[in-house]
Amino acid sequence: MPHPHVHPHPHAHAAVKEVNGPSLGPVVLDLGGTVGALIVRTPAGLEGAEIEIRPASAAWLGTHVAVRARPSNPPAFAAVFGGLPEGAYELRLRPPRPGGAVERVEVIGGAVTEIAWPALG
């Protein structure tokens, strides 16, 4: 949910470079003030899967990102959501699965929150 930079920000910006695969560029996270980011670590078996996010108790609008291999030793797999207003969020695999897991998380402004995906859903 990144936003265009057509307005002044009262907070600092931090860029984080991550290699998302051979054809994808770095991930830039806009952090500060009431804006945070979320990293969802997953099992390797979820590489390429999509994780959908919404503010807690809001309608699912289809906002999602893909799980990608991240450079580390051993390789890690994660979905990265940047530019999130602080607050409570819910996550699920997309497309939704009957009885699938919904993970709840609190995003803190000015910080990167990390969680581990609990199950395949």
Description:
It is built from no helices and eight strands. The protein is mainly β and 121 residues long.
Quick gist of this model?
With 121 residues, the chain is mainly β.
Write the layout of secondary structure elements.
Elements: E1 35-42, E2 50-55, E3 64-66, E4 68-70, E5 76-85, E6 87-94, E7 103-107, E8 112-116
Parallel strand pairs: 1-8
Antiparallel strand pairs: 1-5, 2-3, 2-6, 4-5, 6-7
Based on secondary structure, the structural category is: mainly beta
- Per CATH, the class reads Mainly Beta
CATH superfamily grouping: Immunoglobulins
Q: What number of structural domains do the residues give? A: 1
For the sheet with most strands, the description reads: 4 strands, mixed
Q: Terminal Cα separation, in Å?
A: 24 Å
Beta-strand content: 35-45%
Summarize model confidence as the mean pLDDT: 79
**CATH topology descriptor:** Immunoglobulin-like
Order of helices and strands: EEEEEEEE
Q: How many distinct helices?
A: 0
Using DSSP, what is the number of strands? 8
- Gross morphology is globular
Radius of gyration: 14 Å
Uncertain spans? 1-23
Q: Into which percent range does the helicity of residues fall?
A: under 10%
User: In the CATH hierarchy, what is the architecture at level 2?
Assistant: Sandwich
Strand order of the largest sheet: 4-5-1-8
